[in-house]
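A common beginner's mistake is to predict each chain separately and then try to dock the pieces by hand. The better habit, illustrated here, is to supply every component at once so that their relative placement is modeled jointly.
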Amino acid sequence: MAALMQNEAFQVALWAMVKVGIILGVMLGVVSYLIYAERKICGHIQARTGPNRVGPLGLLQPIADVGKLLFKEEFIPAGANKVVFHIAPILAVFPAIVTFSVIPMGPAPMFVVTDINVGLLLFLAMSSLGVYAITLGGWSSNNKYALLGGLRSSAQMISYELALGLSTIPVLLRSGTLSLSGIVDSQAGNLKAFGTTLPLPNWGIFHWYLVLPFFIFLICSFAETNRAPFDLPEAEGELVAGFHTEYSSMKWALFFLGEYMNMIVICSIMVTLYLGGWHGPGVDKFAPLGLVWFLTKLFALLFFFIWVRWTYPRLRYDQLMGFGWKVLLPASIVNVVIAAVWLYWRANA
Amino acid sequence: MRNETMTINMGPQHPSTHGVLRVALELDGETIVACKPIVGYLHTGMEKQAEYKTYTQSIPQTDRMDYISPMSNNLAFCLAAEKLLGIEPPARVQAIRVLLCELTRISSHAVWMGTHAIDIGALTVFWYCFREREKVLSIYDHVAGARMTSSYFRVGGLSRDIPEGFLERCEKFVDEMPAHIDEYESLLTKNPIWLARTQGVALISGKDAVAWGVTGPTLRGSGVNYDLRKNEPYSGYETYQFDVPVQTAGDAYARYQVRVQEMRESVKIAKQAIRRIRELGEFGPYRVRDFKYVLPPKEDVKTSMEALIHHFKIVAHGFFPPVGEAYSTVEAPKGELGFYLVSDGSARPWRMKVRSPSFINLQALPLMVEGRLIADVIAAIGSIDIVLGEVDR
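With all components supplied together, the output reads:
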């Protein structure tokens, strides 16, 4: 046993397991309180107070919600494909959790579960898996509204993933690595431009050729997470509840969790790629401060997501597709070319 | 390749059909091939029931037709009955009726805006609109004792005089309202997504709208300047200064603009009505003094034998209008609301027929949505502004 503890590979694996446990627990806690935050913020946006009955300030509301959902009837519609119907909600949660393992929440190796050298690719792969949950869930329910929701989502997510992927390329061109920790490291220090050091951090967003990709990424992430104004797959005004019309109990809750986990993941990626990750004043002196900076930026973005949802109406299906293919995709392609030319010229100049 | 269409039942249980409307849609992908509104899920036989009730007993029924705007319904019924009897209420009563009907228009349009926006996905507008609607409901509560089913108007007048502090309350509301309308507008009017979802959607030309009998803001959004308050004035509307907003585009956004503008005009009318009530006396007689048809004042009943007899007769049997028929219309928030009453000389109408704007405007739905997308059906239903209680009666 002692020999095993001395083994370096075993130590790495053990630490990783501990970190996975912590992250899973923290993630579920954060998600439930993100839902609470959303309800509270939306309440105040809408001139009401939001949950305030369960516990002080309604803080026990998420626990009450989960308790209620656990005791709800699991309804499976007649004619549903049972196997697929069960798998779909699992698929909604799984990619989000997996992606979280590569996100650096502070200086490596302490604050990242695993620092693989293709972290960004893992994120892109997992976010494409997410569409299966919705499509399969919609298709297997044997319900026309669910089917329409599923079809919408597959079309929507595929078209927006292109622009999303393309908007990450200028970041890669700049940092020269696919590792998310590497990308964060490339954003350390202060911005250098015009031969001087500016009083701005060296974050991606402060480089002119990364401004447009940041906004494209932001818009696409609304579509990727099915949040308003791109919440067409579940558009309750039109499709009742879209792909999860027939889901109930914890299976419905998994879709719900998945949506919020995806939001956290995609915001974390945005922080990592464009907002300097865990970098901020004082991190070089006290490493855990990185986690604080990371979470601050993350919650600012999450607040923005919530804010937009309760302010804007929903786009129509054809407008959504038109916007994705005719505006975002060409814009991101042009930006990739410009960024590549600029970086090549600067490297040779 | 084989092409198949899918038939989908939108409603009667659907979050955006404003009640129990059922729309049978034939879809090719998301495009609508055919659209058929099916009504009748809320049929309560109000027209038939009226034949078994005295005229006064029918007033609470009318509250339940367009339950978003009870005062306008009360007014339409009372005007028809008054026409049958050949009586006209005093000017002060008419001003109170105008004031309450314009407040009703504001509240009805607020409900419309909130629900229309929530259908299109702008969830927050709803809460702001309902906040102001709540104030109108409190005003109803203050004046009539009920928040929604007010039953405040009576044939020949009102059920009771306006309470103390009522005019101040209305004044406060109409003074605050324009700022609230600005607030709603700041969320929608120039919002690019709102424009994209409503402009060019649910189109109907002025010619088609007239041909289908469409009235109200839906008609005025198509460029036809037709408002009963101007064209066939009732209750003294000809003496008020106000404009009739008209838009020519004929789409959902034009109807939105018309209704927003109408709320502002209603505020103007309500202010004039408040001033007029003050001029004519804040408190005073609130019924016609024609005791064959209208209850005498309670004080007289306690002292005068004749008044007591009239009171007893009207309470026990209702009043007996002359043989004949009468049709009267008002510009309700949703369009032309008409009541047709036929009297055989008994205390109960021989026949009552309601021309309800929601029902007739709804007929234009297939015209607006065929060949469009499924999301446009929701925008179209919202922009017509229907209440199922009135569609089915």
